[in-house]
Amino acid sequence: MRKRIAALSAALLAATTLVVTATPAQAAPSNCRSGKEHHGGGPSGTFWYICLSGDGGYYFKYRVKHPNPQVDEWRYGYQTECAPVLTWLEFYYTIGQREITEIAYC
Asked: What DSSP letter does each residue of 5-29 carry, written as one string?
């Protein structure tokens, strides 16, 4: 039994190493800036992000509150389209309803 576990572990390690070394590293944007502008003093506004150098692009991951106000639940897995370097990316948010969870590179 131990030999099978050791063999399986070695095979998984080899497969993981192969995938990692075969996958090219994603070049990252750099010299990035961000900010936000509130709309009318309420809980909503615009969050912006731009990278001025580097390679690749960036996007926002965000969450949305369940449409039924009686359900206290967030829905995850949403994201904007990938914006290439030197592209102004904007996100219209409402605190407690639609919020950014992460800035990711693509």
From this structure: HHHHHHHHHHHHHHHHHHSPPPP-E
Per-residue pLDDT tens listing for the chain (106 residues):
333 333 333 443 443 333 333 344 556 999 999 999 988 878 999 999 999 999 999 999 999 999 999 999 999 999 999 999 999 999 999 999 999 999 999 9
Residues sharing a CB contact under 8 Å with residue 76, sequence separation 6 or more, in sequence order: 63, 101
Those residues whose C-beta lies under 8 Å from the C-beta of residue 81, and which sit 6 or more positions away, are 59
The tokens describing 36, both together, are 């936000």
